[in-house]
Amino acid sequence: MSEHERIDTAEKPGRLMDLMHSTTVVARKCLAIQPGQSVLIVTDTEVSPMVYHAMAAAVHIAGGIPLVAIMRPLEHANAEPPNTIGAAMKEADITIAMVSRTITHTRAREIATQEHKRRYLLIPAVTEDMLMRGASTADFDVVKEITMGTAKALSRGKQVRVTSEHGTDLVFSVEGRPFRAYFGECIKPGDVSLFPGGEANTLPVEETINGTVVYDSFMMGVGLLVNPITVEFERGRATAIRGGREADTLKRILDGTKSEDSFRFGEFAVGTNYRARTIGNAFEDKQVYGTVHIALGSGVAWPKYYKPNYHAPIHLDGVLSSPTISVDGAVAVTGRRVLVAPKPPEE
Length: 347
Description:
The protein is of the alpha+beta class. The protein folds into 2 domains: 3-132, Response regulator (Rossmann fold), CATH 3.40.50; 138-338, no CATH class. 27% of the residues lie in helices and 28% in strands. The protein is built from 9 helices and 20 strands. The strands form 3 sheets. An 8-stranded antiparallel beta sheet has the order 14-13-10-6-5-18-19-20, with helices on one face. A 7-stranded antiparallel beta sheet has the order 7-9-15-16-17-11-12. It is globular and about 50 Å long.
């Protein structure tokens, strides 16, 4: 039995109080909800009702107007939500996606945030345990400081090299592609963010991405990895995927989208949440302090600086557990330590 399943056997009142602690941080610190603002909570039938009820309560207490939309689980991460939910996302002041499979890299989200300037906060693959332990319990202000420091330092460089003891050796340029700090804050019109926060990411210059990536920890759609997955990249595209059963599963998922763009390099990010755990939950695993995640498929965007000129029907993050990152020849991350940002508190 997994940890989050054991947690679900606890008494309801105690769980609700713990859940309210995290959802109150979302309402007050991440979103700064103001009286009268409409907040659409998008969820699905794989998510515990305790989770979205606690979120709705936190929105209500903050003075917002919560609306809960429950859909069937999507076929895969970043599949388009039903049209009715997409329409609601355009109208609500804020959307909180508390879903078992993310809807961040979808046209529905892009239209809501980029064209209608609505705010969007993702709380993906969410369980009661995820909101009661680990990354969600980290000090919001500390994670903000570490993440902003990491993004600022990495953005000063031009050339990045990533290596690992498992065989990763990847190089690319980030010139003109600054890193964006995601620590959970979603305040301004059109903002897109993630809770629990804890990553600094970018989309490298596509044609400069070359080399080998060995995913050794986690791959979205596959789960925790027993056998590493090796992916070869040439000019920003995956040209070969090797490994055991997990690699075969990844290839089937990508082939199943019927889109060549699913094999593109979509994101490079550093985890900055000092309480995040490796538990087989994509959106906690990829924020573990000092790790790296690299995505296949739809590319991350920062419209002020860069935006992919394609749209893949999928975005799959894979985690490297202990990489070394060098920026313009200087080591920035190694041994699960971020050397260019404030240190996390001693636990």
